[in-house]
Design brief:
- The protein is an alpha+beta fold.
- It has a single domain, classed as Ribosomal Protein S8, Chain: A, domain 1 (2-Layer Sandwich), CATH 3.30.1370.60.
- It contains 10 helices and 12 strands.
- The longest helix is centred in the N-terminal third of the chain and has 19 residues.
């Protein structure tokens, strides 16, 4: 499938206009577009502009509330709950992390769950927001079942991503954003859209056998066998059960039943290092850790040792100058 390179500002503007035309408020459309283009800039196209058409299809079917009344209820000095009123998860998650950040600044820690939400995009955006305030950020969200549990043949778990962001002094922040499956479903969809095969180990067919044709993928596999399977359950507990939402096979599907509200949950945490240690020393030590791990001699086949998020940060710097690479079909849809 053909791709095109487009200035990121143009893509962001096209997404925003498309959402406004579909009935989304200007404020919410701008936030959704900002988070989608964040993913494309980082080279994570599976969570970028590609998703716009699906969101609008769900909006038109009634599965997303275009004008939600999002509310925040503090439940303690460092805890609170955001009720998203079935709006865009990007906006809901942004508000939830914002409240966690404010509580962490004042009281050292902030933990916020979000309920009645929908797909919120790349978690890296939200933990990166925490690092801008010299805070550690943690984010989790669950998804509908698509991953087989370790030792199982049928899907039970979602891709259930988890992300951490840690600030540094002069280095870019440490950003770890990963699905608890081998890959996020969006990467399978992206390969399908672009007409590419997938590597073995990304997905399995109805019999639980690994496949390379993205069209034959029925379920995904957890990363690291029982470790990824167990961590996926943790994410479901924190972002699902702790938020009063569903888990695993009871989560409403993303690509089916577009008229149904997803009722997703998210979990966000911000931690203020200055409440635990000297902040300047912490940031300096993070610099040292990042720099020293890069100095580890690379194994055969590797040019150097990288830290989590470094490839995406390099992509972002380059793509801000040269433009983002998106599927031609996505670009044509946005312009139509």
């Amino acid at each position: 499938m053909a791709t095109v390179k487009v200035p990121f500002e143009e893509v962001e503007s096209l997404i925003e206009k498309k959402l406004i035309k579909a009935g989304v408020s200007a404020e919410h459309a701008a936030k959704v577009a900002q988070i989608l283009i964040h993913a494309d800039l980082r080279g994570v196209n599976s969570h970028g502009a590609l998703r716009t058409e699906h969101y609008i299809n769900r909006l038109e079917a009634g599965g997303i509330n275009p004008k939600p009344e999002i509310s925040f209820k503090p439940t303690g000095p460092v805890t609170g709950i955001v009720d998203g009123d079935d709006g865009f998860g990007h906006v809901i998650a942004d508000k939830a992390m914002g409240h966690a950040i404010e509580m962490a600044k004042e009281n050292g820690v902030g933990m916020v769950t979000a309920m009645n939400s929908s797909h919120c995009g790349a978690l890296s955006y939200f933990v990166q927001e925490a690092t801008k305030h010299n805070l550690i950020g943690i984010a989790m969200t669950h998804t509908d079942k698509i991953v087989v549990p370790f030792g199982g043949k049928e899907a039970f778990l979602g891709t259930n991503p988890i992300a951490y962001g840690v600030p540094a002094k002069s280095e870019k922040p440490f950003i770890l954003d990963m699905a608890t499956s081998n890959v996020a479903l969006g990467k399978i969809l992206q390969h399908k859209e672009e007409g590419k095969e997938i590597p073995l180990g990304w997905g399995v067919d109805e019999q639980g056998a690994p496949v390379t044709d993205p069209a034959k993928v029925v379920s995904l596999s957890p990363f690291g066998g029982p470790k990824g399977s167990g961590l996926s359950m943790i994410v479901d507990i924190f972002s699902g059960l702790l938020a009063g939402m569903a888990f695993g096979p009871h989560v409403n599907k993303m690509y089916d039943d577009l008229d149904k509200k997803r009722k997703l949950g998210h979990y966000f945490c911000a931690i203020n290092p200055s409440f635990f240690t000297d902040q300047e020393n912490f940031l300096t030590q993070m610099d040292a850790m990042i720099q020293e791990i890069r100095e580890v001699p690379p194994a055969e086949g590797f040019a150097s040792v990288l830290v989590p998020g470094e490839i995406e940060q390099r992509n972002e710097e380059r793509n801000k100058e040269t433009g983002v690479q998106i599927a031609a079909t996505t670009y044509n849809y946005l312009k139509a």
